[in-house]
Design goal:
The complex is a heterodimer. Chain A is about 30% helix and about 35% strand. By secondary structure, chain A is α+β, with helices and mostly antiparallel strands. Chain B has 7 helices and 6 strands, in the order αβαβαββααααββ. Classes of the chains: A alpha+beta, B alpha/beta.
Chain lengths: ~375, ~260
């Protein structure tokens, strides 16, 4: 049976290869050999072509067999079936999965068929944080959270810890910004029997130009935008030209929100910051507020990059809780459950402790 | 030598007597050679006979009960004198015989001054800090409405309460030690707001997922160039607030109390 998926096998011992976070090369955990990314890529290229052809053949056969059933047609549109090159098991994944691991033998596997019809990423930020780092970072994240239920911390059973390369669009933009601000200067002085407050109003006009580089917007429908914006920023100094070799051993999605659809989110952030830059130049006043603004994009470029994210999931009282960690910087984001009893107890304690103090203070001013 | 000393002493005694006579004589308060000076001297004629009689009996009762003098003196004019100094000298001259302290409420109708002077014994019972404020707040509202009889009654009644409190509790009455419902409500609101703030902080700790609104991290600082910068003055608005005036006197000295305008 022809293989419809590929994984990197060691040319020496045929064991699966993995890209180790923090290393420049692809290494074999079994025989200890290290290989250049380029060498493995070339080897993979040939294997990929073969696998893609095999997938096409299998897909057309599978589609024909399922003809006539509406349920199967809907499933077929979303799913891909491929064969694990290590154990021969059939792996089912969705149409956006570029890399995954075999659920039976655990070997890292790529789905070359799913690379079709999409742009090749320009860059990749390699994983720097390991699975152990992710678990430790999550434990650290639990610390100092007063309302976190004690049982949640005690159980601490993670259902899944998955490393995933998430597709991101990186927007470069050069803008011209214009804004009008209303500013005030306040002068207070006293006579023998009056306090006089003079408020002077000014109209402040500002225009300027500025550049923004690599504003990230995630291109995956599955990934929550708020989570992806919360794990920012990434250190672009460590970003390298894309190579599929980096994907091996990790899950990877291709984009399903194209660059055009991601533009408004980047533009909104640019506009906010551009007006902020102009507002910072309105100095010497006691208050400044923006009355109107216009931000015009002079030029813009987009790059496509894969960025590393650890996805950690756990369950508490039947509810799933998902945390995400920036695979490069280790920043963890997520939403924790709250202990309702503590939620009442702590503020009530603060209230009761403060009440006598506030009473005597209030009495002092009222009396 | 002996003659000289006698002569010097005579001159000194004469000088003191003349000074006192001049000071007292400059005030138009009736002098009483025999017996104590009445506790209500209405030179300005603010009270009817019936009101004066009623007030006198009320004040007499308070004076007997507590062994004090709490006089009310009204003048048409201060003749340019300071109300505090005048009240103090009237207190020393006419009402210094209170066993447990003396106090006088002085009104001057031409300048609309009021002043309460207390001696040092009374000052321990009606303190300058809390007690005087409480006393003046009791009689000032009717005084400002020109309800003089009512104001004087309030003055006597409040003094009676405060002196009774001192005798029972052994310490001067201080409104700050009273239960204050308004203060409790304010305290509950403030403590409640702080508790809500604490609750919000604790809840926010649990979730650090939020949308990014700015792109400041990605701004190329060296690319920022301002091409237009103009500030235009538009107008000025002016608000005026009257300052509150304090009327109580500073601590120390031989007299207590305080005053103001009504």
């Amino acid at each position: 049976m022809a293989e419809t998926s590929v994984n990197y096998k060691c040319p020496n011992c045929s064991a699966p290869l993995s890209f180790q976070p923090g290393h420049e090369k692809v290494s074999c955990e079994y025989c200890g050999n290290e290989f250049e990314v380029k060498t493995i890529e070339e080897m993979f290229q040939k294997e990929q072509e073969r696998a893609a052809r095999a997938a096409e053949a299998q897909e057309s056969k599978w589609a024909t067999e399922q003809a006539g059933s509406e349920w199967a047609a809907a499933e077929a549109a979303a799913l891909r079936v491929c064969t694990c090159p290590s154990c021969g098991a059939e792996i089912v994944c969705d149409g956006n999965t570029m890399a995954t691991e075999c659920v039976y033998c655990g070997n890292p596997t790529m789905i070359p068929k799913n690379f079709d019809g999409m742009l090749k990423p320009d860059y990749v930020i390699p994983f720097k944080k390991t699975k152990q780092d992710a678990v430790e970072a999550l434990k650290e994240f639990y610390k100092g959270k007063w309302l976190l239920p004690a049982e949640f911390k005690a159980q601490n059973r993670l259902e899944a810890i998955q490393p995933m390369y998430v597709p991101f669009w990186l927007f470069d933009s050069s803008v011209s910004a214009h804004a009008g601000f209303r500013a005030t200067r306040v002068r207070v002085y006293e006579t023998s029997d009056e306090r006089i407050t003079e408020t002077s109003y000014y109209d402040c006009e500002r225009s300027g130009s500025m550049d923004f580089a690599r504003i990230p917007v995630d291109g995956s429908e599955k990934m929550d935008d708020a989570y992806m914006e919360s794990i920012e920023p990434f250190d672009y100094a460590e970003m390298v030209p894309f190579s599929t070799a980096f994907l091996t051993g990790f899950l990877a999605d291709k984009y399903d929100v194209d660059a055009e659809a991601s533009v408004p989110r980047a533009d909104k952030r640019i506009e906010y910051s551009a007006v902020g830059v102009l507002q910072e130049s309105v100095i010497g006043y006691d208050s400044v507020s923006c009355q109107s603004s216009a931000v015009i994009k002079n030029s813009g470029q987009v790059a496509y990059a894969m960025v590393p994210v650890w996805i950690l999931t756990t369950r508490y009282k039947g509810e799933p809780y998902t945390f995400m960690m920036n695979g490069q910087t280790g920043k963890v984001v997520g939403s924790l459950p709250s202990d309702k009893r503590k939620e009442v107890l702590y503020p009530a304690a603060v209230f009761l402790l403060l009440l006598p103090l506030m009473y005597y203070l209030a009495k002092f001013f009222v009396a | 030598m002996k003659k000289r000393i006698v002569a010097l002493l005579s001159v000194l005694i004469l000088a003191v007597m003349m000074t006192t006579a001049f000071a007292a004589g400059s005030l138009t308060v009736p002098q009483h050679e025999n017996g104590p000076v009445p506790s209500v001297v209405d030179e300005a004629g603010l009270l009817t006979d019936a009101q004066r009689q009623e007030l006198m009996s009320q004040i007499d009762q308070v004076e007997r009960d507590h062994g004090v003098r709490i006089a009310v003196v009204t003048l048409k004019s201060l003749h340019g004198k300071q109300p505090g100094a005048t009240a103090d000298s009237i207190l020393d001259r006419d009402y210094a015989d209170g066993t447990h302290g003396s106090m006088v409420l002085l009104l001057a109708m031409d300048s609309r001054d009021w002043y309460v002077s207390t001696d040092n014994t009374m000052r321990k019972r009606i303190t300058d800090e809390g007690g005087f404020k409480h006393l003046s707040e009791a009689f000032l509202p009717p005084l400002k409405e020109k309800k003089y009889a009512k104001a004087f009654q309030m003055y006597a009644a409040t003094a009676d309460e405060m002196l009774g409190y001192y005798e029972e509790q052994g310490e001067p009455y201080d409104p700050a030690s009273d239960f204050n419902l308004l203060a409790l409500i304010i305290a509950m609101v403030l403590a409640g707001l702080v508790a809500i703030g604490v609750w919000q902080i604790l809840v926010r700790q649990l979730n650090n997922v939020m949308h990014a609104v700015a792109a400041d991290t990605y701004l190329q600082q060296d690319s920022v160039a301002l091409t237009e910068q103009s500030d235009t003055y538009l107008y000025t608005s002016v608000t005026r607030t009257r300052k509150a005036k304090s009327s109580s006197r500073s601590s120390g000295g031989s007299h207590g109390g305080g005053g103001g305008k009504f």
